[in-house]
Specification:
Elements lengths: L5 H24 L10 H4 L11
């Protein structure tokens, strides 16, 4: 079984990692959660035994 020349594969591997490291971190840093956490639950906690029906 012939051995592959590692030279072009190393270049492909390094270039893919460089592209990955240049594109993913800005996307992660720009992420904003869709709903901001609210303090309504902290101010008015729900009683677990109060049911909405009679």
């Amino acid at each position: 079984m012939p051995q592959l020349n590692p030279s072009p594969w190393m270049l492909i591997w390094l270039s893919s990692w460089i592209i990955f490291l240049l594109t993913i971190p800005p996307l992660v840093l720009m992420f904003k959660p869709s709903n901001a956490p609210t303090t309504d639950r902290l101010l008015n906690p729900l009683n677990p035994w109060s049911w909405p029906w009679p």
